[in-house]
Design brief:
The structure holds two protein chains of two kinds. Chain A is an all-beta fold. In chain A, 0% of the residues lie in helices and 51% in strands. In chain A, strands 2, 4, 5, 6, 9, 10 and 11 form a seven-stranded mixed beta sheet that branches. Chain A is globular, with a radius of gyration of 13 Å. In chain B, a hairpin with a 6-residue loop joins strand 4 and strand 5. Chain B starts with a strand and ends with a strand. The chains are: A mainly beta, B mainly beta. Chains A and B meet through strand 6 and strand 10 of A and strand 4, strand 5, strand 9 and strand 10 of B.
Amino acid sequence: GAVVSQHPSWVICKSGTSVKIECRSLDFQATTMFWYRQFPKQSLMLMATSNEGSKATYEQGVEKDKFLINHASLTLSTLTVTSAHPEDSSFYICSASTGGGWTDTQYFGPGTRLTVL
Amino acid sequence: GENVEQHPSTLSVQEGDSAVIKCTYSDSASNYFPWYKQELGKGPQLIIDIRSNVGEKKDQRIAVTLNKTAKHFSLHITETQPEDSAVYFCAAKGPGSGGSNYKLTFGKGTLLTVNP
């Protein structure tokens, strides 16, 4: 199946700093990429959807100025957590879709564990 | 928006037994239903999916059934093995909100434990 990578796999930062997470589709072109957040023992919650070359669409309650998403190419999307605080500590997972239709398969990356001290 | 309910939240079976996880969804416009397996500390891995134009799909020990009229779908794992132990998520894809074209909504997950 299609492979999605994330970097870094884990990061620890101080409160108030910014952290950038990269998501890459390794063997396919991803028209659409998604960013999810997952707290311990909970389900995945969609944060935003990004189409290559367009502004990301954020889910209700997600601060667009805090979680900056860039999808500059068909194989790379980045999520920047600005001015991170301890409550931002979570498991961030990206996903990439092989197409733009409703029934197109979504493949997930391995996740990035963010800990804000 | 879409709401996906998943049951049970935990499931413990003996090696070799079958495991069944059930999900219901609320939006009749949803037409794509994947299942993901997530091991501790890792991202979800797609194990099987079904689209609304079929009622059943099988891949070796794993099968999924879909009843669009009743708006429910199920995952069946036969001949379970200890390495099947993980959290399983069902999901439904339908119309998104906030301007997105479509959105994958997840169930809350089922922790499957296969005892040797």
